[in-house]
């Protein structure tokens, strides 16, 4: 059965409106009496534990930062892409893949080619890496995070390999926020490539960064993205960190950001767009980590190092001594003590205030790295994250409870019952 500390009661706007949240489920009580709320709690505690948090097969997985080089100069870039040109060697990637193969019992590999720079800027190196991975595993699922400025050959290759593609695209603010290195606009080529991929059956996820100056354009951006045929968009606030280009003035006000997100969600429902929105603040209810970092993500850097977070990828980055926990040296070599300590970076174990917060099953403490950039250690949630979650989530849950159009936009495969 569900443990007592796995059930959270969230007070929603209005009088005696509640959400009872536990792993995998949300129960709603609107205008609920004490007896109604007690009944919802009893239902939550009665769920068999074997029905909670069931997962698919445990696949072999490796992330690779192909390069720190980039042809764009995004004004907020978390990695300052393009300011250095390091490129991973084929031998380093090959050695890492061999090690992953040796330690895996299965024949399936999730391969993630991620940012730091633009991976498809060095398309030939990407081809070498992926083709070699296919000699080791019967099935390789290629996943690419790209700025969307790739050429025709790369586009055709993504289609042929049925790649999972996440394109960073800021909609109507693209040319302002994500120009080429020479200052020219990048919007046209990104739109063209998104259209090509979608018309060929590739499910493209668009990731959009919102700055303080871009809040008022969010609805226009969603209109544009939907018109391209995109079915999933992730909207995140710009974040100023020790390694990013963003400064504090670029960060949107957390309350204004929350209100803008609510208006965007309502707009999607009113327009009837067939698009899902990942807010980054509302997740499937569970007691798991926000992301794979505390579980020891394996992300290979151009220097042949293994980091658990793409935001800490260079040996001289702040907190590199914590998050870089392995290297390529006759295979993959890990510091198991460092890997074990990563597990503490979780709301249950360390994050100040979260272990007793009634939103913890939904927000999971938020992005741990965002909190670390703001507060360092010991781990404590950033004020921005906390304000957004306590402003956005209760109002969004009430919308889900009262409007059947909302849940399919913001929640995937979660049981929702209304009392």
* Shape designation: globular
**What proportion of the residues is helical, as a percent range?**
25-40%
What structural class do helix, strand and pairing data support?
alpha/beta
Query: Uncertain segments of ≥5 residues (pLDDT<50)?
Result: 51-57, 414-419
Overall residue-averaged pLDDT value: 92
Going across the major beta sheet, what is the strand order? 10-9-8-7-6-5-4-11-12-13-14
Radius of gyration: 22 Å
The total of helices stands at: 14
Total strand segments: 15
Percentage of residues in DSSP E strands? 15-25%
Question: Major beta sheet, specifics?
Answer: 11 strands, mixed
End-to-end Cα distance, whole Å, is: 21 Å
The helix/strand series, from N terminus to C terminus, equals EEEHEHEHEHEHHEHEHEEEHEEHHHHHE
What does this 3D model show about the protein?
It is globular, with a radius of gyration of 22 Å. The strands form 2 sheets. Strands 10-9-8-7-6-5-4-11-12-13-14 form an 11-stranded mixed β-sheet. It has a 4-stranded mixed β-sheet with strand order 1-2-3-15. α8 (254-271) packs parallel to α13 (383-402). The chain has helices at residues 34-45, 90-102, 123-136, 152-160, 174-177, 187-199, 218-227, 254-271, 320-323, 336-342, 360-363, 368-375, 383-402, 407-410; strands at 8-12, 17-22, 25-29, 60-65, 108-114, 139-146, 164-168, 204-210, 232-237, 276-278, 299-300, 305-307, 324-328, 332-334, 415-418. It is an alpha/beta fold and 419 residues long. The protein contains 14 helices and 15 strands.
């Amino acid at each position: 059965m569900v443990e007592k500390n796995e059930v959270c009661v969230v007070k929603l706007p209005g009088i005696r409106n509640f959400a009872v949240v536990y792993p995998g489920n949300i129960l709603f009580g609107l205008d609920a009496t004490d007896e109604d709320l007690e009944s919802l709690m009893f239902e939550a505690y009665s769920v068999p534990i074997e029905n909670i948090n069931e997962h698919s097969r445990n696949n072999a997985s490796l992330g690779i930062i192909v390069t720190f080089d980039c042809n764009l100069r995004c004004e907020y870039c978390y990695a300052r892409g393009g300011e250095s040109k390091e490129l991973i060697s084929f031998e380093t990637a090959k050695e890492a893949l061999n090690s992953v193969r040796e330690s895996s019992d299965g024949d399936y590999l999730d391969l993630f080619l991620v940012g730091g720079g633009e991976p498809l800027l060095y398309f030939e190196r990407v081809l070498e890496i992926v083709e070699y991975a296919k000699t080791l595993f019967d099935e390789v699922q290629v996943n690419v995070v790209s700025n969307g400025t790739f050429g025709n050959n790369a586009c055709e290759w993504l289609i042929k390999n049925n790649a999972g593609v996440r394109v960073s695209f800021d909609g109507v603010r693209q040319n302002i926020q994500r120009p080429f290195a020479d200052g020219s606009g990048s919007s046209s080529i990104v739109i063209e490539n998104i259209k090509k991929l979608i018309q060929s059956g590739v499910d493209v996820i668009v990731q959009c960064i919102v700055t303080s100056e871009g809040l008022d354009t969010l609805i226009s951006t969603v209109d544009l993205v939907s018109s391209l045929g995109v079915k999933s968009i992730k909207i995140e606030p710009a974040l100023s960190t020790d390694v990013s280009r963003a400064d504090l003035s670029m960060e949107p006000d957390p309350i204004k950001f929350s209100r803008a997100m609510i208006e965007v969600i309502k707009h999607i429902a009113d327009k009837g767009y067939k698009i899902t929105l990942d807010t980054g603040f509302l997740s499937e209810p569970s007691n798991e980590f926000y992301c794979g970092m505390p579980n020891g993500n394996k992300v290979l850097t151009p220097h042949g190092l293994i980091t658990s977070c793409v935001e800490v990828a260079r040996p001289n980055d702040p907190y590199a001594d914590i998050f870089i926990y392995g290297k390529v040296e006759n295979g993959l070599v890990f510091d198991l003590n460092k890997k074990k300590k990563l597990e503490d970076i979780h709301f249950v174990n360390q994050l100040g205030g979260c272990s007793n917060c009634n939103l913890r099953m939904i927000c999971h403490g938020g992005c741990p790295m965002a909190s670390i950039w703001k507060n360092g250690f010991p781990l404590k949630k950033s004020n921005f994250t906390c304000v957004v979650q306590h402003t956005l989530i209760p109002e969004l849950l009430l919308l889900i409870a009262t409007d059947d159009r909302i849940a399919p936009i913001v929640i995937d495969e979660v049981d929702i019952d209304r009392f």
